[in-house]
Amino acid sequence: MRLTCPLCGDRDRREFYYMGHATYLDRPAADAPAEAWDAYLHLRENPCGPTHDLWQHEAGCGAWLRVTRDTATHEITAVELAR
Amino acid sequence: MRVPGYGLMIDRDAPLKFRFDDTWVNGFEGDTVASALLGSGIRLMGRSFKYHRPRGPLTADSAEPNALITTHDGARRIPNIRATVQPALHGLRTRSQNAWPSLAIDALEVNDLAAPFLGAGFYYKTFMWPKAAWEKLYEPAIRRAAGLGALSGEADPWRQEKAFAHCDLLVVGGGPAGLMAALQAAEAGTDVILADEDEILGGRLTREAEQIDGRPGHVWAAETVTRLTALGVRIMPRTTVTGAYDGGTYGALERVSHHIADPHPDLPHDCFWRIAARACVLASGALERHIAFPMNDRPGILLASAVRAYLHRWGVAPGRRIAVFTTCDDGHRTAADLRAAGIEVPAVIDPRADAPDDAIRGEVVATRGRLGLKRIEIRTSGGGRRWVDCDALAVSGGWNPTLHLTCHLGARPVWDENLATFLPKAGAVPGMTVAGAAAGLFSTTQTLESGAAKARQALDGLGRRHQPVTLPDARSEAARQIAPLDVRAPKGVRHRAWLDFQNDVTTKDVRQAAQENFASVEHMKRYTTQGMATDQGKTSNVAALAVLADATGRGIPETGTTTFRPPFSPVPISAMGAGAEGAGFAPERFTTSDPAMRKAGAPMIETGLWYRPGWFPQGSEDWRAACTREAAMVRATVGVADVSTLGKIDIQGPGAAALLDFVYTNTFSTLKQGRVRYGLMLREDGHVMDDGTTARLGPEHFVMTTTTAAAGQVMRHLEFVTQCLRPDLDVALISTTEQWAQFSVAGPHARTLIQSLVAEPVTDETFPFMACGAVTVAGIAGRLFRISFSGEHAYEIAVPSRYGAHLWRDLLARAEALGGGPYGMEALNVLRIEKGFVTHSEITGRVTAFDIGMDRMISAKKDCIGKAASRRPALLAHREELVGLRSASGAQITAGAHLYNQGTRPDAENDQGYVTSPCYSPALGTYIALGFLRDGRARMGETVRMVDRVRGQDTLVEIVAPVQVDPEGGRARG
Ligand SMILES: [Zn+2]
């Protein structure tokens, strides 16, 4: 598997650290209800098809990336800086 | 036997000798072990897996199921080498496998007589009962009787290598299609790698009498290779592309020195390549099919294409009278080539209605010859039967495109009714196109054309401009039509017809599987073990599923194929993991004091990737004595320790303080410049991630210290927070762990030592407890932190790493002059347990701030990572809480032991907690520990029972506060 880091270019999977679903980008407000925190921390879809992952180019530039990946074909359709 | 005037690739002026079992075998440079053995008249090369049937080579290539041998001696022994691809080397030791006492007289050949009982599922049905006998009796016996070659049992001394390569276009296979594909792409200026499993490129051109552009095919191939090299193509001979993976990554095994009799010791045996290719042309050719006729496994029965290969490439004929049995035109080509070489062809048998006139229309229904073929029985289409004497039989059942790589990402091949074969599914692997015989194009003209065309298709995909290359002129034989795959065992014939030679699977086994309702192809495979041997069923898969289709009354397309997985051919694990043996298993990180500490006899202990000293033995001290002495020394005089392995993260910018407030539970924006604060960091789920001290060196400049273990995790976390959660903060981070050598100086004489070293005054006014600042150490700009992990008056002093080794020596000399010395990890651990400081033995990832008694460190005035989740009610009551433990009996406390209330049964139900960090405390003169106890903070003074089932300890311990030495902290402050 290879990912194209927007800053460094096409790199081997071994340079990247995988964190999980891109849900982690949408942190609830400090005073959000418990349900919102539960959803943020624990509840994930398990799609057959496109999904969004967070990867860090840990052995490269250090950038956190939002990767669009197809769980059925493993095709990577987008790699963007996570914001 | 050798055939005069033949042998394109052997050098008759370079004879060589190698040993096969107890015989010296003559061969020539260019021979394989199999060709040299056949050339010497030896056809019997192995015994089959289950029935111990005598076997000879079926192929002349890597698909070989039978001719498996062991090469080399002692620890260098390599089992299951295919004699058909192993180059014959002068002096090489080779041995047959799975035969005892000898290949010709194999005692376990009796298995073959028992064959009616040993069919599919025999083991499953027979060895069911009694259960205990499986491990003790049945399995060892079966393993002895069945099997392939054995490993030496010693450490593998072969040097292995792994490597990475990148290219625009990877061409898999160096036959006519692959050569043309590489040429087309190289002419367009593309960066090309051409890999072929053979030593010499050319594919079938090295094994046939064929003309291209008016010269022998192998000459054209060699000239093309020269041209490709000049164009910058990286040619990789002896390299099998073994797998296709996501994103254009391919695995490949290069047999680097298998062809060298006396390789240089630095030369690897194999190299496992990971090739990243933007596009790929698969030109892997095709594999000939065997025919499932009765007793089709005798030595001397070979595939027709293999017979031609042995004749043309190696000048070898597997017999003097070679009959041919074929269901396609290819067998007739073998007959013609043999006759042209003066070899007698007593019969050509072809069951097709439109068989050529000189062929016998019929089929082979029986064979004879225990250790090698002697005669065959033919039944003609008219029904007549007769025996024909022959010592070899060339068989062709048509061709299967070598499409394995197209299936590695999950695609299934597509059945083609006209060609009676499976073809690769279009688009099966992104970026891969399939050319030549692998795509079902079997004439040389077609393969040349298709190689160039598929390369152009790949170039279009890469956005490269190209001019079509000129196609060479090849013999354009009539399309070699294959008869529809006919798999029905002849009616009225009892004998077994083999499909999978290596695993001894016959047509009967497959039919039996269907009968017992293992009718899905995946079930049949597992029930019969067809295709599960080291050759992965290359010569048997399609025939086996055709039998299954017939037995279940389905068509071949509905029956489908089993899954093709990497590797395409066997890859030694030692090549994939090359470099990872011993110290290569993980990177090693060394502190600047490492050489001096080793010289002092300190045993170095792995902590993550770092190596840290356990203790510094004096005289005949064991670890306990040294540790106790060092811990007492720190409390009495002064000790020095290297703490450079702690993670250091430099944090700068206007947003630095806000970032720290967000990632730590407590507040750092209020920290004054020149001061240090202890910080606790949570994960977003409310559990403790790490702890450490952070110093404020300037208004917008902090240095964070992490634990050794969590340095990487914390850095990753800070990057995530700054990039993704708080991009509003203007802050920059960098790890400086490697840039600073940092040493702890601890004990009552610590200030005396530090003051003797640094230029600046070090007093309670200039450097009070938890102060930090710049100092000058022998003219070098350093940093001084007054922090303590031992509970003593202590400092950490840091200098740029290049001065670390020198400062360590200097510190040691000064400490020794004050009656102190170095202390290691064991003493460091004792000192912190006495003080109740936690490490990752306590903050294991399942522990909250509440659990370690630091809940009040979660500031109520601000948000922080993990705050919301840490407020969950279940995390704030009835928890296992951090406590100190003290031996009530004087007996040792052991790590991992569990705690129970006295009078209860020590089982899981009554479990009250566990011990995390035990030690012998020289300060208290007894065994103490840290641990977790249910509702522990409310239970001070209680005595509980400690049970360690691993070490057999069972004793009473007293519950005390975690801080057991100097609870008021006066020693550190004073
Ligand atoms: Zn990058």
Automatic annotation (TrEMBL), chain A:
Pfam families in the cross-refs: SoxD
Listed InterPro entries: SoxD, SoxD_sf
GO molecular-function terms, A-Z: sarcosine oxidase activity
Domain of life: Bacteria
GO biological process: tetrahydrofolate metabolic process
Protein name: Sarcosine oxidase subunit delta
Organism annotation: Jannaschia seohaensis
TrEMBL record, chain B:
Aminomethyltransferase C-terminal domain ranges (all copies): 882-966
Residues covered by the GCVT N-terminal domain: 597-862
Record GO terms (molecular function): sarcosine oxidase activity
SoxA A3 domain location: 495-579
Gene3D superfamilies: 2Fe-2S iron-sulphur cluster binding domain, sarcosine oxidase, alpha subunit, N-terminal domain, BFD-like [2Fe-2S]-binding domain, FAD/NAD(P)-binding domain, Probable tRNA modification gtpase trme, domain 1
A GO BP entry: tetrahydrofolate metabolic process
Top-level taxon of origin: Bacteria
Keywords of this entry: Oxidoreductase
Membrane as UniProt keyword: no
Record-linked SUPFAM superfamilies: Aminomethyltransferase beta-barrel domain (SSF101790), FAD/NAD(P)-binding domain (SSF51905), Folate-binding domain (SSF103025)
Family in the record: Belongs to the GcvT family.
Protein name: Sarcosine oxidase subunit alpha
